[in-house]
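#structure-requests
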Amino acid sequence: MKSIVDIKKILKLLPHRYPFLLVDRIVEMERGKSVVGIKNVTFNEPFFVGHFPDYPVMPGVLVVEAMAQTGAVLALSSVEGVDIENSVIYFMGIDSARFRKPVVPGDQLVIKCELIRFRKSICKLKAECYVDDELVADAILLSVLREKNE
C-alpha cells in the first residue's frame, strides 16, 4: 500500500520516537472521519526480548498504543486553527478493548480508526487492528488535545 502520510510527517505530528513509535505509515485518511495505518511487526522489536523469548507475542498494551497513535494522526490532521507544533494528544481512556488473536513477528498490523466524536478538545475513536484481513484487536479510545506547555 502506498503511503499518504509518510514517516517524516508522522514524526512531525507525534512526539513518539523509537522504540515507542508504533505506526510506520498512513495509507488512507479522510480528515475528520477515518484513517488506516500500518505497523510492520518485526522480530527486532525490543519488547520481544522478554515477551516472550520462546514464543514472541506483541503485548496487547502496545497494540492499543499503536491504535492510539494512529488515531492521534487522524485527530491532529483533522483539527482546524490549532498550532500542531505546540499541541499534543494525551490518552484518556480505553473502553471495550478485546484481543482476539496474538500479533507475532512478521505480521503487518493494519490499524483502522473511525472518529466517533471530536468536541472541544476530546476525541473518541473506534479502533480495529487486522492481520491478513482478520480482526485481532479492537477498542474504543478517548484522547484529549492540549498545548504542550499545559
